[in-house]
Automatic annotation (TrEMBL):
<dbReference type="InterPro" id="IPR036736">
    <property type="entry name" value="ACP-like_sf"/>
</dbReference>
<protein>
    <submittedName>
        <fullName>Phenolpthiocerol synthesis type-I polyketide synthase PPSC</fullName>
        <ecNumber>2.3.1.41</ecNumber>
    </submittedName>
</protein>
<feature type="domain" description="Carrier">
    <location>
        <begin position="1"/>
        <end position="61"/>
    </location>
</feature>
<keyword id="KW-0012">Acyltransferase</keyword>
<dbReference type="GO" id="GO:0031177">
    <property type="term" value="F:phosphopantetheine binding"/>
</dbReference>
<dbReference type="InterPro" id="IPR009081">
    <property type="entry name" value="PP-bd_ACP"/>
</dbReference>
<dbReference type="Pfam" id="PF00550">
    <property type="entry name" value="PP-binding"/>
</dbReference>
<keyword id="KW-0808">Transferase</keyword>
<dbReference type="GO" id="GO:0004315">
    <property type="term" value="F:3-oxoacyl-[acyl-carrier-protein] synthase activity"/>
</dbReference>
<keyword id="KW-0596">Phosphopantetheine</keyword>
<keyword id="KW-0597">Phosphoprotein</keyword>
<dbReference type="InterPro" id="IPR006162">
    <property type="entry name" value="Ppantetheine_attach_site"/>
</dbReference>
<dbReference type="InterPro" id="IPR020806">
    <property type="entry name" value="PKS_PP-bd"/>
</dbReference>
């Protein structure tokens, strides 16, 4: 059993961390309640590690997984120095306008 200050290996099966069947159901119920989605009863057994579980939940909720997010960022065009300068000027102008109107 882990102590509260111990780091958790995200690739270690939850069962080896002390998760039993009742705790698995409780975890599934809490995830359902907090995420607002319906999940299978055997969720934590089908996805036995924190990493597997997080990936499955991201897929169910149509969120990009870290690998998918990396693929997206790899295909995004990079801005030129001139475009970055223009963007910085726009941000500065926007902040200045907000400050003169009393917005923070």
């Amino acid at each position: 059993m882990l102590r509260s200050g111990d780091p958790i290996d995200h690739h270690r099966p939850l069962e080896t961390l002390g998760l039993d069947s009742l705790m698995g159901l409780e975890l599934r119920n809490r995830l359902e309640a907090s995420l607002g989605i319906t999940l299978p009863v055997a969720l934590v057994w089908a996805y036995p590690t924190i990493s597997d579980l997080a990936t499955a939940l991201c897929e169910r909720m149509d969120y990009a997984t870290p690998a998918a997010a990396q693929e997206i960022s790899d295909t995004e065009p990079e801005l030129s120095d001139e475009e970055m300068d223009l963007l910085a000027d726009l941000v500065d102008a926007s902040e200045l306008e907000a400050a003169t109107r009393g917005e923070s």
